[in-house]
Amino acid sequence: MVSTLRIATFNCENLFSRPKIFRESKARSTELLGYVAELQAELRNDIFDHPRIKELKEKLQGYVTVVDIRGSHTSAAGAKEWLGWIEFTKSRNEAAAVENTAQVIYDLDADLVCLIEVENRLLLQQFHDGLLFDVLLKPQNKLGYEHVLLIDGNDDRGIDVSVISRLPITWLKSHVHERTVYAGREVATFSRDCLEVRLEAPDGKPLHLLVNHLKSQGYNAPTDPQGNIRRLGQAKRVAELVDEHDLDQDYVVVAGDLNADPDNPSMEPLVKKKGLYNVNLELEPDKRGTYGTGKKQLDYLFISRALRPHLQAVHIERRGIYSKSRPHYPTVTSKLDQASDHGAVVAEFQL
Predict the structure, then answer these.
(1) Which of 7, 43, 167, 244 is packed most tightly, with the most Cβ within 10 A?
(2) 168 with 200: CB under 8 angstroms?
(3) Quick one: pLDDT at residue 220?
(4) CA-based nearest residue to 160, from 114, 126, 128
(5) Which residues of the chain have pLDDT under 70?
(6) What are the backbone dihedrals phi and psi of residue 139, each rounded to the nearest 5 degrees, phi first?
(7) Residue 267 — φ and ψ, nearest 5°?
(8) Domain 4-16+93-350 part of CATH 1.20.1510.10
(9) Tens digits of residue pLDDT in 93-134
């Protein structure tokens, strides 16, 4: 018996709320994120430069707050006398943006969807139950997603990777605990997480899924402006996890927002991995992009050699992105109410 399997990945750009910083223009957001990175560095120093910290806080007023847990950062001599963190100020997504996000997921009609930049599992469950299922799926007699899974990751903005699935899930594993040395200090290997999920494919075979959101571009860190070094380390670690499987025999999928084009050196561990295939290569070169104007591919579905013969079609759903030159949903009238600035990638298989 032949069964259809549809797998998708979609960065929904903070499903319910977005840091106010990202409401600004790209240039302004980049400038502000540079100040955030500097403020974080200052708050890790053994001796605080209080005038500079005050100056950075003033530049970031309305965008972030410094949360004191033990001691006060305004009076502590340095990091050893203070415990706390920087918290991004968020603004609620417009209702239309959330509805357009649901429309994208509905139109994907995938058996499993990897969702990137979701705040927490309970909100995701509420989104599924109250909007995606009740308003869109149920009236059309379509199945909802029985499995709604998310594990809190490492990003202090609270943006996590997650999975919603109609397929049975038999096992999952987080890698938030892994550590690596970067720019002379030990940090979390993954900026968010590499969430491993094992599902049961329609033909009964295990499907091994690795969901990722790799290091972003544009944080303006002086030692690594584009995050390529950090992202390369993350891609290498994902490739190591892929190596735990036989790509000639096992169904393996690496999915998510990897934050770089395929020709970026940081992508080499995955792009050049024997036995892995980037499904966007099924499309014409000028139609492979997933981000913004469609010129960059940041979102990926890599599949193992065992899955590739079953691949039937690949589609990028871009109607949730606001564009003056491309078709979009009638309900997408501006960048404020667009579903995301990312398109969703969906691949269809016959098993």
Answers:
(1) 7
(2) yes
(3) 45
(4) 114
(5) 92-93, 218-226
(6) -60, -25
(7) -90, -10
(8) no
(9) 678 999 999 999 999 999 999 999 999 999 999 999 999 999
Q: Quick one: DSSP state of residue 342?
A: B
d(CA 132, CA 125) in angstroms, rounded, equals: 10
φ, ψ (nearest 5 deg) of residue 256? 130, -170
Nearest partner of 123 among 11, 15, 256, 13, judged by Cα: 15
Q: Determine the angle formed by the axes of helices 26-42 and 50-59, rounding to 10 degrees.
A: 160
pLDDT at 97: 92
At 133-148, the pLDDT tens digits run 999 999 999 999 999 9
Bridge partners (DSSP) listed for residue 173 = 196
The structure's pTM equals 0.82
Tokens of 1: 């018996």
Q: Which helix (H) or strand (E) holds 185?
A: strand 185-188
Provide CATH 3.60.10.10 ranges for the chain.
Answer: 4-16+93-350
